Amino acid sequence: MTNTQKIQRVSALMSALCVLIVILLPLLLLWIWVDFERTNGTLEYIGNALRPETIALPYRILGFIISMVPVALLMWGLLHLRALFELFRKAVFFSEANARLLHKFAMMLFFSTLASPIARALVSVALTINNPPGQRAVVVNIGSGDLNSLFVATVFLAVAWVMREAHALAQENAEFV
């Protein structure tokens, strides 16, 4: 098996994995909000202000909608990443589309990561709004996972830029021949 064939095989697998993740992300998030009593450990960043028994259905729905914003951005990015892997699967390695798709994925990862702390803060408000005065909370946190994702997104943005410039240079050189 040639290296190109190996790349095509891995790319097909990665493309399918992107689709699977796009399907699973909203389902897992929905499960968290539906089975709240069992899964509320996922919201431990809110701390002692979280009282599951006081969270009515409308606030759970609001929490789900707010939580979906960064997830939806990531899902959109994963669809671009899937399209990139589909190009690789077809042995298209050096097109402008490759750079464009990688750039779009990186931007969506970047925006999703920026939206996550904001969404977490809004969720903390939605979940503690029914608490008695003095026990409501606005929790803002930025974790190492957020910083790691921002770094990875920035790396992908830089690689996409280099790929775009390399493609433009290759086009320019091809015109001289």
From TrEMBL:
Keyword Membrane listed? The answer is yes
Q: Which UniProt keywords apply?
A: Membrane, Transmembrane, Transmembrane helix
Listed transmembrane segments: 12-34, 61-85, 105-127, 147-163
Residues annotated as coiled-coil are: none
Name the InterPro entries on file.
DUF2975
Keyword Transmembrane set for record: yes
Q: This chain belongs to which protein, by name?
A: DUF2975 domain-containing protein
Species lineage: unclassified sequences, metagenomes, ecological metagenomes
